[in-house]
Amino acid sequence: MDAGAENEKTDYSPTADGERIETSEFEPAGVPGEGFLTSLANRAMQQAAEKSQADGQEEGKPRLGRKLTGFATVPKLGGYFIGKYGWSDQQGAHGGDGFSQRLIRLYVDGTLLGDFKYRLQLQANNASFHMKDYFLEWSHWKELAVKVGQFKRAFLFENPTNPWDVGFGDFGQLTKRFSGMGDYCGEGSSNGGRDQGLQLQGDLFPSKRDGHRFLHYQLQLMNGQGINASDQNRHKDWIGTLQVQPVKDLFFGVFGWTGNYVANGVTVDRKRLAVGGRYEHNDWSARIEYARHHGHKISEYIPSTKDFSGRGRADGWYAALGVPCNKWLKVYVKYDAFRDQADWQSLRTMYSVVPNAQIHKNLMLQVQYNYVHDRTVADRDYNELWAELYVRF
């Protein structure tokens, strides 16, 4: 959405796997907590900063200018990796992927002048090394924050969740196909639910009883081509969400997306609508979402007829529950369905059970069993077993 036990309460707007810098209480936990190496580096930078005096102050206020050195937090470093072993008894899968590197991430964030928050995040996947996030956000008011750069799309509750927090060895089919992680239209999986553009967001109507905000909004104007890519036409993607929090920690939202995607000279529409709910309280977790898509895939284009195959529609839904068993063990279950052509002949469902054992704040072990029923392949029913290792450093 990073997307897990990144439970420090620096909240920040969706950036998928969802790392956030403080802005919205409506978004799931963002960056992971410090690891042992980054903790040492961050403490050293903090101590060095404390020895120097802020410059450019006058009656407690900054004198703006290029020589101003004070009124900035010490940049915070972080990093983590996820390793995976995958097994499958599906015909033709050769026993699964075996050992693989799911991801390695390094990030730095901080604030300037109190109201400007920045973030930079890099990711490596095996031989691929790329920029994941970069943005600057002005957030003087909770009611209105302005962000520019590369960050998470405001589509679906699961998308901005950090991999440490999502509870499963991967995001759901719906999230991956409709938020830009191997997008339905043809975007690459490396996009991680992100794009480049401009965002307005805010939280309105605070409760007099406990201070939680009843309404959250986000509106994005994006390129539509994913990360590290310029726009390919004059059209931009509009993405937005309205979320209500009737009681603290319970959220209901509606999401919309209109735009297009261009590849190999072919343009396809992206019109999407989603509804869902999320609950996170006392280590209990629950998410449920449904989304539908109108528009073809790039791969469905037929050059000889300049037309498309397929129905130009798709939809999906899931329901997930996380149950805390003790201080270090939490078990998730999930029902996950996706219809590639929005009909029952294209249905693929996954039933998952996933124990998460976090035996240290910087170490988590995860085992996931999936029973898969896929009507689009010859071997419709098969089993998968994933084992993943999460380490913060």
Q: What are the key terms here?
A:
mainly beta; Porin; 16-stranded antiparallel β-barrel; two-stranded antiparallel ribbon; 2 helices; 20 strands
Can you describe this structure?
By secondary structure, the chain is mostly beta strands. The protein has a single domain (36-53, 70-392), classed as Porin. The protein has two helices and 20 strands. It is globular. The two termini are 21 Å apart. The model is unreliable at 1-24 (pLDDT under 50).
A few lines on this structure:
By secondary structure, the protein is mostly beta strands. 6% of the residues lie in helices and 51% in strands. The strands form three sheets. A 16-stranded antiparallel β-barrel has the order 3-4-5-6-7-8-9-10-11-12-13-16-17-18-19-20.
